[in-house]
Amino acid sequence: MESMVAKITQIILSPVLALIVGVFFLGLARKIMARIHWRYGPPLIQPVIDMIKLFYQKGVSHGRIFDLGIILSLAGSIVVVLFLPFGRIAPLSNSGGLLVILYMMLLAPLGMALSGGQGANPNISIGISRKLILSLGYEAPLLLILLAVMTHYKTISIVEVVSAQQSTSWSIISFPLFLSGLSYFLILPAILGIRPFDVSSAPQEISSGPMAEYGGKYLALATIEHAFVLFISIALFVNLFLGGAANPFIFFVKMLVVFVLGLCVNAVFPRFRIEQAIKYLWKWPTLLAFVSLIIIMAIRS
Amino acid sequence: MSLEILLIIAFGGALFTYLVGKVSYKGRDFLAVAISLALVAFVACLYGKAGEETFYYGFLGLNLVLRLNMLSWFFAIAISSLGALCTIFSLSYMKARERTDFYFLMMLLVNAAMLGIVLAGDLISFYIFWEIMSWSAFLLISYNRGPALAAGMKYIIMSIIGSVCFLVGMLSLYVSFDTLNISQIASVIGSASSGYILFILTVFGIAFGIKNAVLPFHTWLPDAHSEAPAPFSAVLSGILIKMGTYGFLLVLYVIVGLKLFLGLGSGIFSFHSVLCLLGAVTIIIPTFIAVLQTDAKRLLAWSTIGQAGYIILGIAFGTNLALAGGIFHFFNHALFKALLFFAVGAVEFRTQTRDLDSLGGLAKKMPVVFIATLVGICALIGVPLTSGFVSKWLIYKTLILEGSPFLAFFALAGTWGTILYSYKLIHNVFLGQLPEKYKTVEKAPFSMQLPVVVLSVAILLFGILPGIPLKVIDLVGVSFGFEILNVTLRGIVSETGTLNTINIFSAVLVAAALVWLVFRSTTKSVPVTQEDSYAAGAHTPVDKYHYTVEFYNPLQKMIEPFLRDVIDEFYYWIASSVRSLASGVRRIYSGDVGNYVMYIILFLSLLIFVQMKWKVW
Questions:
Q1: What domain range is A167 assigned to?
Q2: ipTM
């Protein structure tokens, strides 16, 4: 009975924590970017203010799929959070392991693409096409990275990957895996869709792409979804390479370090074109991840 | 004797339907549906039974045998159910066409022949049914005439090559073991040398690989699938090519057996790793070729080749989880690919086109077909909560944990290619702007909606409760000599990783309900038309732009040069060289009697010369 209560608390707690962290990161990103650009920047809680405002504004709807797509997208992200360990909080992580996480991460872009598709706007079509091509671009190294981790620790469960690191050392400082970790760090901005990989949501070029028709609560939900994606991609990195954490606070600190580092590196780059992005992603990150996997296989046999 | 009765109903029903069609259309339609449903019921009643029965004594001195076990039951139920759905779909699809009696005859004949194949207990009857299937499929592929004739010709030529290989293998087995009964061969094949087993596996591998469209034997499939009538494309892709899969299972696991099969060769040069590698290549290349297609059915055809790669990979890998994944994926592929071919067929029926560059926005006009297509592509991608996820999960998990991450990479990367073409399919047909000319399109007729709804319900049901088919598949694995899997209704329990679809399902349900509540309780949105979209202040003229054309243009430019179908070009080169050689030979027959007299004289003088010089005779 007690474990049941604990489990339910965790199920409620982990999306809430993830949301808070994600939204905090959104605010922080704007602040840091502004400082790098020598501006003062908006207050940290600006995303929260925006969201509350947006929920009170009217948006337009292009039909039922337009509504359901965005709901599916956000629900998909929330579910992924339940599968990811956050410190010791890992409510559903034993229901299929990393493969399920990998696949559940699909629901968010799929929902967004369906919703945008019904928007019938040329900018949306271009944005989605770019988003899908870009995701093909970063999935090649990402899959190699995940396969390297799973092969190295001989498990598909993310909880076991974390506990194996806690009993030995972090993957990022262990021999072949640091190559994979480096590769993950290089593709992180592409996963997050931030510069220089913001091809699909390029605001000046294609009116924010998939979000062109969103207003009011649609935009608010899309922002929340983005916050979750921020949380998920960085938490995955912390779990796989920085040894997870014993409690949520240390986990948060680790996430913060990764996020700020990533932001500083990438804030100064101009935007890639989509084919440049693919060429970059399929060159160095893929090569690193590939070499790492080969070394792991060589050690094993 | 029940198996004989089953086949008599199947074959006799096909002929009877044809005769009734000469009298009344309605009667023929009713009879076709009734027979195909009766077959489903009949097969379902045979669940759990096993046995062999001889139905013909002394054919060329051999007994022809029918045999039922878990493997053949599983295939038989898939064949008969999909056959029934196809017949129902055909009712309105074929209504305004010519030669419909012939069409229904062939359709039922194909189904009957496939039932015969999976129930055959010896290789002779297997071969007879196999040929009936190949030839009636040929007639159905070329049904539409025009380019379909060329597609059918390509199919039947490759099919004949496969059959010849099968014959060679069969005769060689007969010479070696003096029997063609499958279970008798299986019991004595252990005494054969490994070189001989390799030979047998290779000839049968070519025969079944052609049917299953494994690279490099895939070239007939894209043409045949896109030119055949839509309901038959569904049968072709869903079931008919899976007769190759059945053949592989039969040869690898029933006849040769697991131990011998895995023991052939060593390391990367073993038969098993070569077959795995072929499966992986078959996944990756066709998947990316599918991304480039603009014809909806051609896209699905290339996708079929790619998905068949997963099945081959699962079967060839040779562990119980991978085998379960492979067989389960065969079943899933039958469900979702038939569904997608039906959906494209329904769209083609209403709009007369399947060109992905000119359709669009049909979701509002054909909502049921749209939802079904959505379920179909989710299963094709393998989104959790559809049955496609479970089978792919099993395959990936085995590949990773058994230490083949590169094969797993091929399989997973293929999935991301699948996302690209699946979204292209659904976006270009159902989403985006609805062109003026399709504003009056009606929704699909009932007999087309029913099969797609049934299939999407099945996909979701088996995705949330995968234990139902997995129990049966597990029994198939056990009959091959594998350990029993720990299957529960909601997935598979094992020490190395548990799948729990109920947890995933409830999490998604609760999360979606939560977001929906937030969505409902906030300000209501204003519905707008598709013309009323944001274009940064500029005016977008109606029907001037079509956003779906060249959907993945940047990617296409990058990958297209690498994705030429070299194998197809090579086969065409062989075909054209043979043709020019033949036309060269034909010149000898000039039709002039004088020439012929000269040939005779020349030949005689050659003989005389030989005799004088060497004294041969």
A1: 2-300
A2: 0.88
CB-based contact (8 Å) between B408 and chain A? Answer: yes
Length reported for chain A: 301
Helix extents (H) in B318-445: 320-351, 367-381, 387-401, 405-430
Q: Do the beta carbons of residue B109 and residue B518 sit within 8 Å?
A: no
Contacts with A137 (C-beta within 8 Å, 6 or more apart), sequence order? A190, A277, A278, A281, A282
Kindly determine whether residue A217 and residue B534, on different chains, have CB atoms separated by under 8 Å.
no
| Count of domains for chain A | 1
Under 8 Å between Cβ of A171 and A165? yes
- Do B499 and B524 meet the contact criterion of CB atoms below 8 Å apart? no
Q: Which of A70, A78, A94, A103 to mutate to test the interface with B (most CBs of B within 10 A)?
A: A103
- Beta-carbon separation of B389 and A103 below 8 A: yes
Residue B336 is encoded by which pair of tokens? Answer: 């979702």
Among B409, B503, B555, beta carbon nearest to A92: B503
Cα A285 to Cα A142, A263, B64, B146: the distances in Å are 9, 18, 60, 49
- For residue range B316-335, what is the model confidence (pLDDT) as tens digits? 888 888 888 899 999 999 99
| Tens digits of residue pLDDT in B68-93 | 888 888 899 999 999 999 999 988 88
Return the residue of A nearest to B412 by Cα: A143
Q: Does the CB of B488 have a partner CB in chain A at under 8 Å? A: no
Beta-carbon separation of B405 and A218 below 8 A = no
**Sign of torsion over alpha carbons B345, B346, B349, B351:** negative
| Minimum distance, in Å, between the CA of residue A276 and any CA atom of chain B | 10
B515, B516, B548, best to mutate vs chain A, most A CBs in 10 Å:
B515
CB distance from A106 to chain B under 8 Å?
yes
d(CA A59, CA A80): 27
CA angle (A258, A145, B507) in 5-degree steps: 75
Segment among A190-199, B149-158, B489-498, B579-588 with least mean pLDDT: B489-498
A79 contacts in chain B (CB < 8 Å):
504, 507-508, 511
Question: Which amino acid, one-letter code, is at A60?
Answer: V
Q: How many CB pairs under 8 A join A and B?
A: 225
- Residue from A70, A40, A103 nearest A224 by CA: A70
Is residue A277 within 8 A of residue A131, CB to CB? The reply is no
Q: Which two tokens stand for residue B522?
A: 């906030």
Nearest alpha carbon to residue B203 among B259, B146, B148, B255: B255
The token pair at B143 is 């049904």
Question: Counting runs of H as helices and runs of E as strands, what totals does chain A give?
Answer: 12, 1
